[in-house]
């Protein structure tokens, strides 16, 4: 159901508040540039420091601006199952096409706890769900066997696999087959994961180069592997540069350099260090973005 280059879009702020003008401009730019879907309120969207009212507004606003031209997959994950259900219910009511649910963080549930968490959300809200596994940020790795168990829930349609392991992605694909679409959670692994059966990526880099990320995925899906590989290597310096510091610090700095948003973010995220900022600027110049 969800394939291609799906942008994990930033949440622009200005003077401590949502900057809807900039967000709307970013969404329009993404859609006209060929991005296959918009993912608001993910990690890149600073969901951890949005109030519930802001979270709801970002999702509803994104749906309004997208106008069904591309799918909107709202980030609705939480380390509280009840809160995840509430956020997912709002996403459905707002008209989102799906929801992205990060594994519960900090409380480190067992594999059985993960299964019960996602099953509870799937049973409570009739909306296509994308699992999100990123153990480097949550402290828990959802194993392929658990992912496979969750395919008994018909509304669980995809996983954003951010473990950094192509081997783990391969095992998920082998166990789940066509029952579940696997999307890369690491931009640099988009091509390798598609080579083993992945269907695309939920991407940070598309915030800066939406057409390039869409073309990479389109080329591979069309069987133009050499073109996809060439695009991968052209983008690889950006893949690296956008993680010089904790995401989304570099991507917000980069969008600021491009004149698209203010660099403002919320504590405990802070402005990029001077040395890393200059390294990022160099990578942006090499990519022709500044």
From TrEMBL:
Q: Where in the cell is the protein located?
A: Cytoplasm
**CDD domains named among the record's database cross-references:** DHDPS
- Record-linked SUPFAM superfamilies: Aldolase
Q: What class of enzyme is it?
A: lyase
Q: What is its EC number?
A: 4.3.3.7
Spell out the residues of the site Part of a proton relay during catalysis.
Answer: 43, 106
Which NCBIfam families does this one have?
dapA
How is this protein named in the record?
A: 4-hydroxy-tetrahydrodipicolinate synthase
Lineage, please?
Bacteria, Pseudomonadati, Nitrospirota, Nitrospiria, Nitrospirales
What gene is behind this protein?
dapA
């Amino acid at each position: 159901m969800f394939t291609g280059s799906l942008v994990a879009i930033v949440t622009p702020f200005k003077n401590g508040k949502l900057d809807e003008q900039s967000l709307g401009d970013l969404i329009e730019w993404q859609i006209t540039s060929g991005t296959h879907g918009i993912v608001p309120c993910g990690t890149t969207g600073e969901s951890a420091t949005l109030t519930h009212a802001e979270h709801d507004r970002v999702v509803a606003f994104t749906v309004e601006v997208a106008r069904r031209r591309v799918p909107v997959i709202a980030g609705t994950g939480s380390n509280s199952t009840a809160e995840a259900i509430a956020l997912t219910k709002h996403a459905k009511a707002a008209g989102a096409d799906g929801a992205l649910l990060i594994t519960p963080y900090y409380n480190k549930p067992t594999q059985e706890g993960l299964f019960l968490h996602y099953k509870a959300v799937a049973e409570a809200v009739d909306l296509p769900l994308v699992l999100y596994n990123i153990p480097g940020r949550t402290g828990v790795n959802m194993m392929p066997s658990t992912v496979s168990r969750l395919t008994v829930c018909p509304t669980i349609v995809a996983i954003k696999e951010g473990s950094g392991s192509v081997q783990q992605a391969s095992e998920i694909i082998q166990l789940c087959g066509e029952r579940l679409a696997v999307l890369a959670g690491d931009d640099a692994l988009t091509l390798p994961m598609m080579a083993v059966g992945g269907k695309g990526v939920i991407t940070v880099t598309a915030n800066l180069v939406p057409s390039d990320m869409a073309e990479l995925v389109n080329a591979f899906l069309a069987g133009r592997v050499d073109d996809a590989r060439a695009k991968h290597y052209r983008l690889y310096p950006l893949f690296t540069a956008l993680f010089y510091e904790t995401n989304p610090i570099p991507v917000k700095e980069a969008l600021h350099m491009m004149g698209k948003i203010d660099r403002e973010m919320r504590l405990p995220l802070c402005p990029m260090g001077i040395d890393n900022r200059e390294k990022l600027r160099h990578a942006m110049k090499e990519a022709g973005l500044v």
